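Re: that chain you flagged

S.,

Sorry for the slow reply, it's been a week of failed gels. I finally had a moment to sit down with the sequence you sent. For the record, here it is as I used it:
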Amino acid sequence: MHFTRFLIILVVLALLPLQSHAEDITVVTDIWEDYTNTNGTGFYLDVLRQVFPPPGYKLVIQYVPYKRSLHLVKQGVADITTGVNAGDMEEKFLALEFVEKDSVDMLVKNELAENWQGLKSLKDKNVVAKIGYNFGSVFEVPVHYEEKTQLLGMMKMLGAGRVDAVLDYKSDIKKLWDKSGLGDNYSIIERVIEKNAYYAFSDRNPAFKEHFLKVFPPLVQSGKILEIGLQYGIEARDLPQ
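Prediction finished late last night. Pasting the structure tokens below so you have them in one place:
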């Protein structure tokens, strides 16, 4: 009898680590309002939690500039990064199931906004975006395009007349509006660039990417991805359905 109990205890103890151990997944990402908030919420992060739920997985989130996040995944230092456009990384890193349509907005003076006729209106203008965004290839007219480190700094450059346009996201621009010192003489033009956004996976654990490609499509079909996106104010037309 005692021997039987002893065997049962051994079996239970052997199973406990398997049941309680969570596989860590290192996610590196820039900070985007409603997509990757610093409190761990946001569309991209909530979707990953659906794909890699506890207790089997644990997301370890690190916030770094976008360009650095790409580098960390390429080097195999991190497992996943978010919001990657095709062309920003080699295709082998991308999970080619688009997560949302990345709609980029633009901050300009009211005069330019009132006469806006598409990207051709930026001919010979000074345009800036954050490092790693690689928007230079979208222009079909000559544009003086540069990339800078901080959105707030670029907004102040616009206010000082050093640049003509800032490419970024409306929610992030609005968050910094008061700090930038910009008044009513500036406007945000929405959706000037549209690209599909993907997750990128490193090569150090191919099982993570394989699991994503297996689990994500059923989540789309069930309406779960749409539900999460709508909770964060993302338009249905920008979400996979």
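What I noticed first: The chain has two domains: 7-101+196-238, 103-194.

Talk soon,
D.
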